[in-house]
Design a protein that fits this description.
InterPro entries: ASADH-related, Asp_semi-ald_DH_pep-lack, NAD(P)-bd_dom_sf, Semialdehyde_DH_NAD-bd, Semialdhyde_DH_dimer_dom. GO terms for molecular function: aspartate-semialdehyde dehydrogenase activity; NAD binding; NADP binding; protein dimerization activity. Keywords: NADP, Oxidoreductase. The structure is a single chain. This protein has twelve helices and 14 strands. The chain starts with 7 loop residues before the first strand and ends in a 6-residue tail after the last helix. Helix 1 crosses helix 12. 48% of the residues are buried. It folds into two domains: 167 residues, Rossmann fold (3-Layer(aba) Sandwich), CATH 3.40.50; 177 residues, Dihydrodipicolinate Reductase, domain 2 (2-Layer Sandwich). The protein is globular and about 60 Å long. The strands form three sheets. It has a six-stranded parallel β-sheet, sandwiched between helices. With 364 residues, the protein is α/β, with parallel strands linked by helices.
Length: 364
């Protein structure tokens, strides 16, 4: 769908951090969005973006010329920022309570907020969406607006980065009734905003703990697979998931090793068929960030590999491989997704594109 539209003016909250930087690179030449405001903490406010970031630019590509000399605004100056934009992307680095408060404050200025943060993922009337999977959860927005007392302002969030490597497979196989999963994720260091330069102790190392990650990895897929009922999202009860999350010496790309039990007994060919043909609204409407093929299946025994597959579909696709029958569980497989593209800023941008296409976000 070709959208002939005047670009929406957007603000990036938390623009100097790693996810904020990723938003900057994704939005600097976007067909729907124009970066109007970069906002960060008080210590960055008033400086140019280049000065505020200093030597902490973490992207592979250079800082876009269009933002170098933009003056950074104070993210807490809600009215001033909101007055200049049609919507904001949120990647602020604050406590959960502070994030909830500031995102709600922006929404109440009639400014839609699409957030990368986890603070609102369990607010019952805030949609947490992977657009290919649970688009219908955006239907909760009118209920949220009623609570907030807004006519156009609302908050939408994208889910945790680690679940992107396996939740799409669970969704693709829903008809076969997966009911139990044991998962281990092998997570890249960029997930915590680091590179090897600023986290040298990760080289040649594995850390078997990522704070809060196991709970998110076990619970968030159930919210995505849940349903809208009486104005709130009710999580699904299955599959029951138990998860371990491990930090590994990889820059980008979260890998998941999954064991799965299903009530129905499809063939391997049927399972692969469901993966490779799984698509949704972003594909049907050719949204700018949408992968043409959401999930690829790789036949080789040694795939997916981070080095070969993390950038599949510009980092917006999911790679699955090594699907085979198991002696204890029914099936096992390996999944891989790019944690800062599909898993973070890219997933949020795709949510925003979807919300624009559906008419939830428009010019003020």
């Amino acid at each position: 769908m070709e959208m002939k539209m005047e670009k929406l003016r957007v603000g990036i909250l938390g623009a100097t951090g790693m996810v904020g930087q990723r938003f900057v690179t994704l939005l600097s030449d976007h067909p729907y969005f124009q970066i109007e405001v970069l906002a960060a903490s008080a210590r960055s406010a008033g400086r140019t973006y280049e000065e505020a970031v200093g030597g902490r630019w973490k992207m592979d590509t250079p800082m876009p010329e269009t933002v170098r000399n933009m003056k950074v605004m104070n993210v807490s100056d809600v009215e001033s920022v909101a007055g200049q934009v049609d919507m904001v992307f949120s990647a602020v680095d604050m406590t959960k309570d502070e994030i909830r408060k500031i995102e709600e404050a922006y929404a109440k200025t009639e400014t839609p907020v699409v957030s990368n943060n986890s603070a609102h993922r369990w607010t019952p009337d805030v949609p947490m969406v992977i657009p290919e999977i649970n688009l219908s959860h955006f239907d909760v927005i009118p209920f949220q607006r009623k609570r907030l007392g807004t006519t156009r302002g609302f908050i939408a969030v994208k889910p945790n980065c680690s679940i992107q490597a396996y939740a799409p497979a669970l969704a693709a196989w829903k008809e076969y009734e997966p009911y139990e999963a044991v998962i281990t994720t092998y997570q890249a260091i960029s997930g915590v905003g680091k590179t090897f330069k600023d986290w040298p102790e990760m080289v040649g190392n594995i850390i078997p703990y990522i704070g809060g990650e196991e709970e998110k990895s076990e619970r968030e897929p159930l919210r995505i697979l849940g349903r809208l009922e009486d104005g709130v999202i009710v999580p699904a009860k299955e599959p029951v998931i138990t998860c371990q999350c491990v930090r590994v010496p990889v820059l980008n790309g979260h890998t998941a090793a999954v064991f799965l039990k299903m009530r129905k007994h499809p063939s391997k060919e049927e399972l692969i068929d469901r993966l490779v043909h799984f698509s949704g609204y972003p594909q049907e409407h050719h949204l700018p960030s949408a992968p043409k093929q959401f999930i690829q299946y790789l036949e080789e025994d040694n795939r997916p590999q981070v080095a070969l597959d993390v950038d599949y579909e510009k980092g917006m696709g999911v790679s699955i491989g090594r699907l085979r029958e198991d002696t204890v569980y029914d099936w096992k497989f390996i999944g891989l997704a790019h944690n800062t593209l599909r898993g973070a800023a890219g997933g949020a941008v795709l949510c925003a594109e979807t919300l624009v296409s559906l008419g939830y976000i428009a010019r003020k």
